[in-house]
Amino acid sequence: MKSIFPKEIIEHTAEAHFARFNKKIKSIYLLVIILIVSILVTLPVVNVEITRQSRGAVRSLYENNTVVSSLYGQVTENRLFENKKVNIGDTLLVLDALKLDNELKTLSKNLVLNQKYQNDLSILLNHISGDLQTLLYKNELAEYEQKIIELNTEIQHKEKDYTINKELFKKEVIAQIDFEKIEYAFNQALQKKELYKKQSILKWQTRLKDLEYKSMDVESRIQKSEKEKQNYVIIAPVRGWITHFSGVQAGNFIAPGQSIAQISPASELIVECYVSPSDIGYIRNDMSVNFQFDAFNYNQWGLGKGKVVGISPDIFQVENSSFFKVRCSLDQKHLTLKNGYVGNLKKGMSLTARFQVTNRTLFQLLYDKVDDWLNPRLKG
């Protein structure tokens, strides 16, 4: 049977072309349908980690400690230089304390002399056998003993007159009024001696009390001066490294409140992040954080890890930017390459912190995106 159309014409018709490629098109179509269905099925299953990022820096747990002078003085010794490591109590600067030293010597001499005076007065008041130490009370004792001798001589003379006239009065040789005058003179001599002794004791007791008060005052002034002298030696209040040294040297004068240097504390390292107000609502304590350090390529060195340990309750404003300070722990002190090379983390290193907010499925992300497109927003 003869063909209506020649074979050469039929091979190039649409019908022949469709018949030849129809099986391949069906296969591709089915593959695309399967792929779309697979994607739709995985949308609610596949989870994606959602993060918020902010800039930050490595720093010490505590602020830098500023070293200042509490008084005016001249530097006699300097032990400071930049980046010096210091421990608590290390001497940093020594100021000239010559005037204070002289004052302390004078006060100490006065205290010793007062104590000697008190010892001598105790000997005089308590009739303790012992040698007096000071010339002042040696002279007073000599005067006292001489006066007692004089009073005893007077008493002996009056007593002799009294004894003789008493016998004469008994024999009625002298009148009663004359005897009474002699008796009165004798009693006056006795009372004069007792009065002198009481006055001397009272005088010494008063002096002893005054010296005790003076000694207490001198001791208080010595303690105050010794405490003040401690301010002439400026020591390190914390352990760390010297930074921002002002450069003062021996011979320079410093004033009260003048900043001499700062000590960067040798405390554990933390990361301080500066989170924008629009992201602070996502941040919470104990949230995991990854740190991408600017000094280390994270593709080679990897990321640092930590957790949020503190969020500032108030906002900070610097120039035209506003932020919250978020402090994070730092789980490692260094990063390591695959070949074992170690890169130490140091204070001041800048970084990008990635806060792991939550995990969401692809379907949730797609829904959020469509909602952003279709849901009308209020414009300010």
From TrEMBL:
One of the Pfam families matching this protein, by short name: Beta-barrel_AprE
AprE-like beta-barrel domain span: 269-356
Subcellular location field: Membrane
Membrane-spanning segments: 28-46
Topological type in the membrane: Single-pass membrane protein
InterPro entries referenced in this protein's UniProt entry, alphabetically: Beta-barrel_AprE, MFP
Major subcellular location class: membrane
Coiled coil: 134-161
A cellular component annotation (GO) from this entry: membrane
Tree of life domain: Bacteria
Protein name: HlyD family efflux transporter periplasmic adaptor subunit
Keyword list, A-Z: Coiled coil, Membrane, Transmembrane, Transmembrane helix
